[in-house]
């Protein structure tokens, strides 16, 4: 039920609860599925039941860079950007893992928001949270050197996967961080020379997480 994933649920009227539940649809996404693409796409609000999604933008030269991720109980508003006429954001949202989501149609949510103070306040909080995420991303790009960004990324990935062995490629890391694969490869080789990681085909083993953390700090 949608009620399990919306913290605002108990503050809504029974009528609003009924409208949200009846209008929302549940979707299963396979890893790699794109659920929203670009400003012209307005699929609706995405409520993550389980799995993992990522939101990313494309540079003019075609490179991808991840701006934030979505996990269980997270909600994405940018997939309903047509509700926010003053916000234009060319963002793509895809499943990083097999995921189940609820989709709340944009027109229905927008109409409800206009008449529900709790829902309007909740939406403002969501916008504020995502704005903070994007500003953090901009700060990383502008002010952090690549060795710091890469070390932080590797540490975060280990936490997400609950493993010191990451089954990923240099190309995938480059897509997350918005750089070229060659740049990632050079820095990973440096990390390996320093004894922080061990590189294998299709995997990276973190053998000195403290050393990586010291780079970021």
The largest β sheet comes out as: 4 strands, antiparallel
Instruction: Give the radius of gyration.
Output: 19 Å
Succession of helices and strands: HEEEEEEEEHHHEHHEEH
Helix segment tally: 7
- What's the end-to-end separation, in Å? 42 Å
Poorly predicted segments: none
Strand order of the largest sheet: 1-8-3-6
Structural class: alpha+beta
Would you tell me the overall average pLDDT? 88
Approximate helicity band: 40-55%
What global shape is seen? elongated
Strand segment count: 11
Residue fraction in strands? 15-25%
Describe the 3D structure.
- This protein is elongated.
- The chain is built from 7 helices and 11 strands.
- Helix 5 (170-177) crosses helix 6.
- It is α+β, with helices and mostly antiparallel strands and 217 residues long.
List keywords for this structure.
11 strands, 7 helices, 217 residues, 42% helix
Compact summary:
The protein has 217 residues and is α+β, with helices and mostly antiparallel strands. 42% of the residues lie in helices and 23% in strands.
SSE inventory with pairings:
Elements: H1 14-23, E1 25-29, E2 34-37, E3 45-50, E4 53-58, E5 64-70, E6 75-76, E7 92-95, E8 99-104, H2 106-115, H3 117-143, H4 146-161, E9 165-166, H5 170-177, H6 181-193, E10 197-200, E11 203-206, H7 209-216
Antiparallel strand pairs: 1-8, 2-7, 3-6, 3-8, 4-5, 4-7, 9-11, 10-11
């Amino acid at each position: 039920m949608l009620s399990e994933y919306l913290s605002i649920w108990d503050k809504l009227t029974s009528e609003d609860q009924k409208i949200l539940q009846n209008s929302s649809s549940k979707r299963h996404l396979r890893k790699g599925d794109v659920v929203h693409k670009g400003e012209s796409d307005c699929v609706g609000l995405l409520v993550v039941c389980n799995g993992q999604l990522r939101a990313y933008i494309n540079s003019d030269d075609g490179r991808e860079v991840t701006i934030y991720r979505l996990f269980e109980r997270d909600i994405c508003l940018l997939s309903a950007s047509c509700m926010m006429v003053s916000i234009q954001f060319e963002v793509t949202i895809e499943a990083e893992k097999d995921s189940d989501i609820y989709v709340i149609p944009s027109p229905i949510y927008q109409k409800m928001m206009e008449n529900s103070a709790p829902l309007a306040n909740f939406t403002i909080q969501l916008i504020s949270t995502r704005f903070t995420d994007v500003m953090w991303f901009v700060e990383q790009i502008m002010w952090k050197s690549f060795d710091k960004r890469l070390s932080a990324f590797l540490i975060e990935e280990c936490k997400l996967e609950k493993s010191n062995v990451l089954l990923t490629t240099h190309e995938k890391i480059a897509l997350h961080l918005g750089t070229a694969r060659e740049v990632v490869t050079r820095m990973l080789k440096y990390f390996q020379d320093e004894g922080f990681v061990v590189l294998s085909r299709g995997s990276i083993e973190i053998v000195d997480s403290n050393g990586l953390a010291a780079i970021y700090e």
